[in-house]
Amino acid sequence: MLDLTPIPAFSDNYIWALSDGRQCWVVDPGEAEPVERWLALQALPLAGILITHHHADHIGGVAALCQARPGLPVYGPETPKIRAITHPVDAGQRVTIGPWVLEILAVPAHTLDHIAYFLAPDDQQPGALFCGDTLFAAGCGRLFEGTPAQLHRALAQFKALPPSTLVCCAHEYTLANLAFAQAVEPGNSAISERCTQEQCKRAAGLPTLPSTLALELATNPFMRTHIPEVQQKAHLQAGTPLADEAEVMGALRRWKDNF
Ligand SMILES: [Zn+2]
Predict the structure, then answer these.
(1) Which among 11, 109, 129, 166 has the fewest CB atoms less than 10 Å away?
(2) Does the structure show a pLDDT above 90 at 1?
(3) Closest Cα to residue 83, out of 112, 97, 65, 63?
(4) Band of pLDDT at residue 72, cut at 50, 70 and 90
(5) Which one from 28, 54, 113, 133 is the annotated catalytic residue?
(6) For residue 30, how many other CB atoms are within 10 A of its CB?
């Protein structure tokens, strides 16, 4: 059985912990201390680390976690920017970590080295997607290194996964993202309903994650570049005709950057 926990770190990061009750893997430990505290509380050993991209708030805790556990496996993209990686992985590869098999997706956009990990569903549970800073609840990551066309291709890969897939992203940005989603599609009732639900969770001190791909397909403008109303609003914002969904993506991202 898979237990998924978002461990809060810094002001709005989540370090995802995968556990089967006997061992634990963590995704993007930007800090070691919250992970150590959670492991001690659960009385679980850390079996390994998964990394999605090189930003400091995703890898800052790796050295300390490894120093305390010599030989700890660290999976991640092949890049000179992350020296701690012991198991470089690439698109299309399947890796077995503990009882789970993860598929690697290359999703260059937020950074060029960005990868995502997909755990396929089985009879017992839905699949899970560890997408780092590529896709957020109701939003997406900024384009620091990649292009809108790359972001479009990255999100297209996510759209092809089962809608029940749990979306495990790395930041609590949901309410701000939903405000933008409402500006893009003021008439979309799924967005206003989600707004109410997520506000309740935050007011209770709960994370809004994991989300599901089905919910993102219904409420996330960056997953809805095929919808005529979204295209029209992106076109109005850009003030110039947009040739395809990648250009719609670019116009939405620029709009959100200044929202
Ligand atoms: Zn990042």
Answers:
(1) 11
(2) no
(3) 63
(4) very high
(5) 133
(6) 20
Q: First and final CA of the chain: distance in angstroms? A: 41
Q: Which CATH architecture has domain 3-257?
A: 4-Layer Sandwich (3.60)
110 Cα to the center of ligand 1, angstroms: 7
Distance 241 CA to ligand 1 centre (A): 30
- Domain-by-domain residue ranges, the chain? 3-257
For residue 45, how many other CB atoms are within 10 A of its CB? 10
Q: Which residues are within 5 Å of ligand 1 (an ion), measured at CB? A: 55, 133
Q: Could you tell me the sign of the dihedral formed by the alpha carbons of 116, 149, 171, 127, in that order? A: negative
Contacts for 161 with CB less than 8 Å, ≥ 6 apart: 118, 127, 129, 213
pLDDT of residue 106: 98
Per annotation, catalytic residue among 57, 113, 114, 152: 57
Q: What is the DSSP string of 195-249?
A: HHHHHHHHHTT-----EEHHHHHHH-GGG-TTSHHHHHHHHHHHTS---SHHHHH
Q: Burial letters for 188-227: b for 16+ Cβ neighbours within 10 Å, e otherwise?
A: beebbebbeebeeeeeeeebbbbbbbebbebbbbbbbbee
Query: Hey, what amino acid is at 55?
Result: H
Please give the Cα distance from 228 to 219 (Å, whole number).
14
Specify whether 55 is catalytic: yes
